[in-house]
From TrEMBL:
UniProt keywords, alphabetically: Cell membrane, Membrane, Transmembrane, Transmembrane helix
Membrane-crossing residue ranges in chain numbering: 45-65, 72-91, 103-127
Species assigned in the record: Paracoccus homiensis
Protein name in the entry: Putative oxidoreductase
Similarity comment: Belongs to the DoxX family.
Keyword Transmembrane helix: yes
Entry annotated with the keyword Nucleus: no
Highest rank taxon of the organism: Bacteria
Matches recorded under InterPro entries: DoxX, DoxX-like_oxidoreductase
Principal subcellular localization: membrane
Name of a matching Pfam family: DoxX
Amino acid sequence: MRPSTLNRLAPSMRSVLRIVAALIFMAHGTQKILGYPASDMNPAMFSLSWVAGMMELIGGALLVVGLFSRPVAFLLSGQMAVAYWIAHAPQGPFPALNGGDAAILYCFVFLYLVFAGPGPISLDAILRRDR
């Protein structure tokens, strides 16, 4: 493909990145909060794990549709940074070994969305057009 074509498609691909990352992220919340897919996780209400699951479920859903994308991405980026340092880093310095590689990746994808925005395929873009 020509660079001009790639540049023209970049905003739409940002939306695709947001949607795919949010769907996968949201699955962590459905597992913690809704028990789907089935797991042995059953966090007590208002525990740190339950709050994280609610953020994954609700924040992930908001990012899928692209509503309040920048502030939600900011909160989720912070959540993933905290999750890495609390749950993964104490188990060792290497993300591939301590299981924190996904948390780091989510943290920086969401941080990118804070600055880049949700892309044109989003409720934020539709609402902005109506103003």
